[in-house]
């Protein structure tokens, strides 16, 4: 999907506010922006949609597909990714699920389009999921993305480390489909306000 960028004046029209208000939002980094060579600031569509939701602004029809919940699964085990994708799609039929098997793939996919939720395994080849979580929290484009950390042990120490790294939720393996679906629903509802929650 080709990304689109929006001028401040277009954002002002969408939000029905003065251009000075949009300029202030950009100055305050309330929405991520970039500057083109002529000095004008632009906002990517993938950054604009979540911002419009925080402002309770109706999403234009041309951007509605970006308003569906998106989930990025980061786990080196293809079997686990397949199972988790199936569970997510069972409860969230409109969710867009993408996969990454390592930190490098995750960073590329997040840079392309930040998801609503990142599900991150702690034990990844060549890196630690908790370090990736902490990096996500420090980056302006991903600091507000929900992160669910999956761990193999579930000790109190590992849970504390996940919370210190900035995880929104923590789930030890093995877990039931229902407990996983419930946490995913809670995190998506936090971001999108309308995700259904399994019984």
Description:
The protein has 199 residues and is of the alpha/beta class. The protein folds into two domains: 5-58, Multidrug-efflux Transporter Regulator, Chain: A, Domain 2 (Orthogonal Bundle); 68-192, Rossmann fold (3-Layer(aba) Sandwich). The protein has helices at residues 8-15, 19-27, 45-54, 78-91, 103-112, 129-138, 156-165, 177-192; strands at residues 5-7, 34-35, 41-44, 70-74, 96-100, 117-121, 123-124, 127-128, 146-151, 169-172. The strands form three sheets. A five-stranded parallel β-sheet has the order 5-4-6-9-10, sandwiched between helices. Strands 1-3-2 form a three-stranded antiparallel β-sheet. It has a two-stranded antiparallel ribbon with strand order 7-8. Helix 4 (78-91) links the parallel strand 4 (70-74) and strand 5 (96-100). It starts with a strand and ends in a 7-residue tail after the last helix.
Which tags fit this structure?
three-stranded antiparallel β-sheet; disordered C terminus; Multidrug-efflux Transporter Regulator, Chain: A, Domain 2
Q: Note the overall shape.
A: elongated
How many helices? Answer: 8
Instruction: Detail the poorly predicted runs.
Output: 194-199
Q: In percent terms, what proportion of residues is strand?
A: 15-25%
Number of strands: 10
The helix/strand order is EHHEEHEHEHEEEHEHEH
Number of domains in the coordinates?
Answer: 2
Provide a concise account of the structure shown:
By secondary structure, this protein is an alpha/beta fold.
